[in-house]
Amino acid sequence: MRSIYTGNWFKCSVTLAFVLPFCIDGYAMTNCTVKGSLKHTESLTVICTKKGLRALPKDIPHDVRILDLSSNEMQRIKRRELERYRDLRHLNASKNQIQEVEDGAFKSVPALKELNLFSNRLTRLSKGVFRDLGNLTVLRLDGNIITTIEPSGLSLLTSLVILNLTGNHLHRIQAVQPLFTLSSVQELYMGRNEFSSFRSLEVSNTSTKLKVLDLSHNPLQFFQITTDVLPHLETLNLGFIKGSLKWDIKLKDSLRKVDELNLSGFGKRLKGTKSVLQSFYPSLTTLTLNHVGPKEVRQFINAACLIPPLRVLHLKFNNIVSLSKPMLQKCTGVTTLDLSHNSLKHFTRLAFRPMRSLTSLNLSHNKITNVPPALGKLTSLEFLDLSSNAISLLGRLEFANLTQLRILCLCENNIFILEYGVFNDLKHLEVLRLGGNKILSLAGIFEEGNLPKLRRLELQNNKLNMICRNELRGLVSLTHLLLRENQITKIEEGAFEGLRTLTHLDLQSNEISQPSLRPSVFFGLTQLRVLKLNNNYISYSCQKSLRDPPFLFLKSLQTLDISNQRHKMISELPSNFLEGLTSLQSFLANNNNLISLYPDIFINSSKLELLDISQNDLSSIAPEVFWPISKLRKLYVSRSDIRSVNFLVQANLTEICLLQMSKNKMSVINETVIRSLPKLTYLDMQGNAFSCDCGNAWFVNWAATNNDTQVVNAYTYKCNYPSKLRGKKLLHFDAESCNMDVGYFCFTSTMCLILLILLLSFFYQFLKLQVVYAYYLFLAFLYDSKLRRLQDSQGYLFDAFVSYSTHDELWVMKELLPQLEGEQRWKLCLHHRDFQAGKPIVDNIVDSIYRSRKTICVISRHYLRSNWCSKEVQVASFRLFDEKKDVLILVFLENIPDHQLSPYCRMRKLVKKHTYLSWPKLGQDTRVFWQKLKVALESGDSLNEGNAILSE
Predict the structure, then answer these.
(1) Nearest-angstrom CA–CA distance, 619 and 642
(2) Which ranges of 803-938 would DSSP assign to H, the alpha helix?
(3) What is the pTM of this model?
(4) Which of 98, 383, 620, 794 is 20 to 30 A away from residue 858, measured at CA?
(5) What are phi and psi of 206, to 5 degrees?
(6) What residues contact 177, with CB distance under 8 A and at least 6 apart?
């Protein structure tokens, strides 16, 4: 039966809703997504719904065929806004705020066939608004506030077949009069306007080809046909008229082809019920009388059932409480009766006796407490719906005479007892729906083969807690078994024995645990294609392999779902968990707390095409996991803490067309990964922590420009690193800044390196000493800055630092130390005693010299040859030159001629510029030496003062 309700009317709708588990071609757009291929544009679709758009996006491909702009904030369609899209076939701009469509706005899209402007704010249709739309076949203007249509506003639509003007503010039928002159128009929906009359003289002087006319929810007072203007009309909707309708059909056969009529909501407002219905006498087959009232509906039925062709009768929402024989006694020809959504509770035994031709009966959503005995008279019934009632018990003989029944619906009742043999007589039953009840046990009712043709059994949402052995063996033709949302904890061996034709088994949302998964449970299900075990209590932990793999005998299984196990205890699936599933194509194991996958987990499932392991704790995946499943086409690994997709390079997934890895922790996607997926057409990387640096430069350019892979919502990807760019859009990153000429970079680097080597060679050959001197002067400056702060805070720790060779240590310990520390009470710093353990020697030297007021250099030939002594005297001299203070005391233990000092440049310069002390020869008096050394230690910082005191 054709629907004549505008609420269910879908033929005019071009609203597009796409689900994503398929492989598509496309590319990244700022606010839209793409379905189709830029290379094969015959079905190229762009979807821009719910993006807050105020204008048409600029990056829509010019070859687009279907454009969905619904649910945005557009207020106007401008004249040249669509000029780039000459091949556009379907345009959906519904649910916007469009107040104006400029004349000539569709001039550039002459190929447009369907235009949807539903739910906007249009108030008038000017004469040029639809100019040049000669190919338009479907136009939706419902849900606007149109009050005015200019005479030629619609007359240019010469190919229009369907027009919907429902829900506007049109007052006079003359406003749409040009439509009735168009020979192409077949369906016209004008419900929920303000028409007060429909007169044939106001519509047209000639016959139209109109087949569907909807005038429901209007305040009609007159419906008058005086000329043959509707000779082809098949469906007429006059439901919920808001006034007392006067019916005037002067031309007897003017409605001779109407076979569907809706008079819902009339009640007492229609005068001359019998004469009205007689207008449709020759052809009426379907009559809808919803919301009429319990008394009024009886008058309609009595008149309607006199029409011999009447076959379908809808009587919903009439508050009918009881049903007796007189009410339907004239409806002998009716084959389909809908009494749903009433208050039916009582039936006389002969209520349906006259309806011997009835094949379909809907009694759902009533107050029936048991199966009415009156149904026993309907021996030809094929469809019976008793859903959403209050039935609690199904007795042995409830359906005894319904031997032709093919579909029985008993969902959403309170059934908890099924008597043995209740369905024994339903030899032709194909579909049995028992979901949403309180059934505790099947009690052997399906064991004996009493339902030989049953193909679909629905037992979902009941109270079953166990499936016993052989309990379903009689259902030899069953293909679909729904047991989801029960309380099943145990499945006995052989529970599904005999179900050799079963293809779909739904056990999701029960309480099944690992012990119930044994190969013997599923033995005999040789044709099973789909098995759903999600939302149970299956758990595996630290089990490398299983003794008895559960699906060993399911050679034909194509889809296995074990996702969302409630205990989240599947940390690792055993390596042979999928053994036996040689035909498996889809495997869903998402949201199970998986932390890793064994490399050989898929070794028996080489035909796998879809794998969903999202919402787990897989921080990384070994590429070997994917080697046995080279035919994989769709991979879902979102919300799994993945930090890198580099495993895809070695995974050999050349057939992948869909990759969803959203909301992970990936920061960089390199070119090698994308190149390893040559057939990738759909990529979802939303919600990752991208790094906005040159590591993603290639991906940024590729996502924005490639025409082969759609990067879903790429323009919403945000930067997480570096911190200064956090929150910015990834595709706004300037990738061009990362592009450089590698050859030029190498040339420049090589030239700089050569010049640097030449310069260093020059300095080493000609300015070696000056460079070394500058280097140590720079070090002294750095150490001096540090030690100046140390001296300011702590003062000097020693009176003198003694620099000497280890060969002269005996003299220092026996002569110098007893005299200066013993008799004169000076505090000396000696490297073997006062250096800090573990500290670098150079740092110890510098710190000791700068923390002492003076430095005493004990010079001998051994001293001149010591590297460490040379460094000590260098640091002391740097301090001397830097601070301009008399901090250096030279003590010669032996006579060293000037020519022997020449190789030691720094020592020679010090001797020439500073006086020094010489240790007396053997036998000479040493008191003068010690006195002069004491004076040198007591002297101040002035260089002149120091030089005057010391003598050679």
Answers:
(1) 4
(2) 809-811, 817, 831-834, 841-850, 861-864, 867-883, 898-901, 905-913, 927-938
(3) 0.74
(4) 794
(5) -125, 165
(6) 202, 203, 204
- Which tokens sit at 240? 């919920």
Question: Quick one: 96 exposed, middle or buried, by C-beta within 10 A (0-12, 13-18, 19+)?
Answer: buried
**Strand pairing report for 610-612 and 222-225:** unpaired
Distance, in Å, from the CA atom of 391 to the CA atom of 869, rounded to the nearest integer, reads 109
Taking the C-alpha atoms of residue 599 and residue 626, their distance in angstroms, rounded to an integer, is: 8
What amino acid occupies position 872?
E
What are the start-end ranges of the H helices in 132-226?
177-181, 200-203
Sketch out the chain's domains with CATH numbers: 1-194 (3.80.10.10), 464-588 (3.80.10.10), 609-739 (3.80.10.10), 745-794 (no CATH), 796-949 (3.40.50.10140)
Q: Does the pLDDT value for residue 347 go beyond 60? A: yes
DSSP 8-class letter at 951: -
Q: What angle do CA 371, 375, 380 make, to 5 degrees?
A: 140
Per-residue pLDDT reduced to its tens digit, 788-811: 555 555 578 888 989 888 888 888
DSSP-based helix, strand, coil % in the chain, nearest 5: 25, 15, 60
Contact at 8 Å (CB) between 255 and 225? yes
Q: What is the helix (H) or strand (E) element at residue 918, kind and residue range?
A: strand 917-918
d(CA 554, CA 933): 104
Total count of residues recorded for the chain: 952
Residue whose pair of structure tokens reads 């008799």 in the numeric block: 823
For residue 19, the Cα-to-chain-centroid distance in whole angstroms is: 11
CA-to-CA dists, residue 700 to 155, 657, 695, 696, 733, angstroms: 50, 20, 10, 6, 8
Cβ atoms of 112 and 135 closer than 8 Å: yes
Alpha-carbon distances of 524 from 15, 492, 560, rounded to whole Å: 45, 14, 17
pLDDT number for residue 814: 87
Contact in structure between 403 and 378 (CB atoms under 8 Å): no
What b/e sequence results for 705-724 when a residue is b if at least 16 CB atoms lie within 10 Å of its CB, and e otherwise?
ebeebbbbbbbebbbbeeee
3-state SS class at 889: strand
Amino acid sitting at position 356: R
pLDDT digits (tens, 9 = 90+) for 151-176: 777 888 889 999 999 999 999 988 88
Write out the H or E segment, with its range, that includes residue 611.
strand 610-612
Determine contact, residues 708/681, Cβ cutoff 8 Å: yes
- Dist. CA 755–CA 747, nearest whole Å: 12
Q: Could you give the CA distance from residue 72 to residue 532 in angstroms, rounded to a whole number? A: 39
**In b/e form, how buried is each residue of 389-422, taking b as 16+ CB within 10 angstroms?**
bebebbeeebbeebeebbbbbbbbbebeebeebb
- DSSP run (H or E) holding 187: strand 187-189
What is the distance between the terminal CA atoms of the chain, rounded to a whole angstrom?
130
